[in-house]
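Supplementary Note 2. Why include the ligand at all?

Several targets in our set were suspected to adopt different conformations when bound, so apo predictions alone were not considered sufficient. For every target with a known small-molecule partner we therefore ran a joint prediction. The input for magnesium ion is given below.
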Amino acid sequence: MFESFDEEARRCIFMARLAAVTDKAKNIGLSQLVAGIRKENPGLFRGVDWQKSPLKLARLTPENLHHASQANADIPLDAKAKRALAAAPEIAKKSGGRVTSGHLLAAVLSADAKLRKQLQKAGLSKESTETKTARAGTRPAVSRSGIGYDLHRLAEKRKLMIGGIEVPFDKGTVGHSDGDVLCHAICDALLGAASMGDIGTHFPDTDEKWRGVSSLVFLRQVRQYLERKNWKIAHIDAVVVAERPKLGPHFPNMRTALAKALGISIEQINLKAKTHEGLGEIGRGEAVGAHVIATIES
Ligand code: MG
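The joint prediction is reproduced in token form.
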């Protein structure tokens, strides 16, 4: 049945199965198919405000996906999902190609008028809902970049947290949270790319809730903000500036911690270290800084 489905469309169905496990559902239904399509091609849902949608989709976080993929569950499709998958190749034929995630979404929406109305009400574009124009799966992705910068003072009797891990050193950063410059600069770069303000707007240092908190919490929260707006993180490139200690040996652990918090792979994060040639406050070992460029796509 799936010979005419392209790689991405097949992955959508695989993700729908994991969504059914996450939902503890007996069958894979249309809502799980929507969750799977959204996971693989969030750009199709550009404009949808999921908080306004009465449709509650399975949260396919890296943790839930890992858990669901461990379950060796054979979950059948329900009647509507079967009809949608059978209709998808017909829709694809009209635009002369293999079944894409866009065709799959059009088929799902044509199988259930109520579901279509719910998603349209939440902001789904006409282009994604009409079977005649269901080429959406092949339209080019939109990509945006954001820049982030942060600097924290160094002081004794503080932990040095950088990139979500503790780096052994005789000084640490001063901050309201754990003072992790790299995590803060990544948050700002991601928020900037999505035009969602900055870290201070979302996690003000006047709020007691954030005192001493791990900055990985901010990253996880920012990841959720982006997911809600249907953005996917494509890449992060960073420069960490510190006179001492040597950071390069800690980069593998930092990339692992950051990738886990952001739900991406370590290949999507690049870290570089620089000293400040003894100049300025960073050069005198009084502060550490970080510069980040993040790219997101939809
Ligand atoms: Mg900061």
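The first strand starts at residue 143 and ends at 155. Residues 150, 152, 175, 184 surround magnesium ion (CB under 6 Å). Comparable summaries for the other entries are listed in the accompanying table.
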